[in-house]
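idk why but the lab printer keeps eating my pages so im just putting this in chat instead. protein + zinc ion:
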Amino acid sequence: MKLYNYSELSTAEIGQLVQRNIDPANEIRAIVEEVIDNVQQHGDNALLDYAQKFDKVTLTKLYLDKPELEELAKTITAEQKLALETAYNNIYKFHETQLKTEDRVETMPGVTCWREIRPIEKVGLYIPGGSAVLPSTFLMLGIPARLAGCHEIVVCSPPQKSGKVNAFIAYVALLLGIDKIYLVGGSQAIAAMAYGTESITKVDKIFGPGNQFVTKAKTIIQSTTTTAIDMPAGPSEVLVIADETANPAYIAADLLAQAEHGIDSQSVLVCTSTDIANATLAEIAKQLPVLPRAEIAQLALDNSYIIVTDNLNNAMQFSNKYAPEHLILATENWSQISDKIINAGSVFLGNLTPESAGDYASGTNHTLPTSSYARAYSGVSVDSFVKKITFQHITREGLQNIGHTVEVLAEMEGLHAHRNAVSIRKS
Ligand SMILES: NC(=O)c1ccc[n+]([C@@H]2O[C@H](COP(=O)([O-])OP(=O)(O)OC[C@H]3O[C@@H](n4cnc5c(N)ncnc54)[C@H](O)[C@@H]3O)[C@@H](O)[C@H]2O)c1
Ligand SMILES: N[C@H](CO)Cc1c[nH]c[nH+]1
Ligand SMILES: [Zn+2]
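predcted complex ->
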């Protein structure tokens, strides 16, 4: 990990540091556009071909049904079931509170406005399964989709070497009451859910994280089809802000946790002393070699860095520019700086709050904006699966109260038919 001194960095250098791997030569875009075209033209056959090409699996059919999922789910241990169920319950508890009915507002006597929630009818969930299979992501997407009341939930996940999904994904499907999983991964899964194929329904909105191929496909279909997306949720990243009250062993563990996701993940430490920086590097050197995914984590760390700042305020200033997916405040003084956070996907406060808790089981959602999209996007929640439709009702009294204002405004815009739609009712 390279080490920088914040006070020596120019604005342009800071701009470079906060930039993520965004396919500068459009190589990923070119691959993904070809995949999308192919799926659009050849439907299920293209999906079977891509399972062979990218996942090295020969499929005879594109999905697993309920009996097959039940069979797979039988193989998991009681301890594993309990962990998935505990995570399910906490995520459910936290997300359940997001379903709130809003008040009706009488803006003028006789003029009432309000919003009502309706679920998005058809949603597609993408559950990553390339480098690591993520049943936790299935919980993070499936629970809010169920709470929202979405009518059709299409689920795609890459086929594993067995030609199936793994047993944990199958168990989560049963917890969520989902009867079918399509064995489709990568950008081809996104294309299939955006355009529909012989066996996969075209959905209204696609959710879920994924690698650069998945994320690129989501951003392309968002601008070329009528299917919406949750957000660009690409390779995982974490930014840790630390001061002298932090524990370098914990910081190292948190940096490594996101680094092990993939070679394109990024882990950034912004700390207020060179001593902490060096102690953290020493801890990484200790903890890294014993990790089964050490090689992946090392490559991600090669693409990561440490910045030393004079104080926590400067650290926060950098973090807000970076807009991390995960922000950890590794300091006992977190309450002094947490109100200065402007851009972050999800925040972890203090030295005893591991980011992994949010990844799996504390209750918050782990599907979060990456690549600085936390400047404008929130993570997935029940809100992501619903529309809030505005309603209004005007009585005769209301028409008298608001009518003239609308007539004058319509006149100002030269839109006489608009004015008339009010006048005709008043007379
Ligand atoms: N931001 C978030 O909220 C969040 C949450 C969880 C995971 N993640 C990230 O999701 C990612 C998961 O990535 P993954 O690769 O393990 O699984 P994935 O399921 O996203 O991708 C696997 C698929 O990628 C496709 N693929 C692989 N190589 C390809 C190539 N050369 N050309 C075209 N397609 C190809 C294949 O179809 C394969 O099935 C990680 O980067 C992880 O950090 C992000
Ligand atoms: N850290 C990931 C989000 O970037 C979520 C995850 C799933 N499993 C483990 N971690
Ligand atoms: Zn993680």
